[in-house]
Amino acid sequence: MAEKKCIMCGRLFDPDHVIESNKNPYLEEEDLPKKTPSFCQLCEAKIRHEADDAKKVPKPM
Questions:
Q1: Which helix (H) or strand (E) holds 4?
Q2: 3 state SS of 47
Q3: Measured between alpha carbons, how far is 24 from 4 in angstroms, rounded to an integer?
Q4: Contact 10, 36 (CB under 8 A)
Q5: How much is the pTM?
Q6: pLDDT of 47-58, one tens digit each?
Q7: What's the first-to-final CA gap in the chain, in angstroms?
Q8: Is the CB of residue 37 less than 8 Å from the CB of residue 23?
């Protein structure tokens, strides 16, 4: 188990665990990217949440 540090918050995390938890059962094994994640799961979820909020269309008045 080689732990890495998150580049955003500095927490130690296991990149193999992050890859396993993000795996899509419908994709083939060879379609997955081979690079290791740089963010812990918490920071990755925060980034995705902020990106989703930025994509929302404002409601008309």
A1: strand 4-5
A2: helix
A3: 23
A4: no
A5: 0.60
A6: 989 988 877 777
A7: 53
A8: no
Secondary structure of residue 61 in the 3-state scheme:
coil
Contact criterion met (CB below 8 Å) for 7 and 36: no
37 in Cβ contact with 8 (< 8 Å) = no
What is the rounded distance in angstroms from the CA atom of residue 17 to the CA atom of residue 5? 14
Residue at token pair 């404002």: 58
DSSP, residue by residue, 9-45: T--EE-HHHHHHHT--TTS-GGGS--SPPSS-HHHHH
Do the Cβ atoms of 19 and 36 come closer than 8 Å? yes
pLDDT band at 15 (very low <50, low <70, confident <90, very high): confident
With a CB cutoff of 8 Å and minimum separation 6, the contacts of 37 are 4, 15, 18, 19, 22, 44
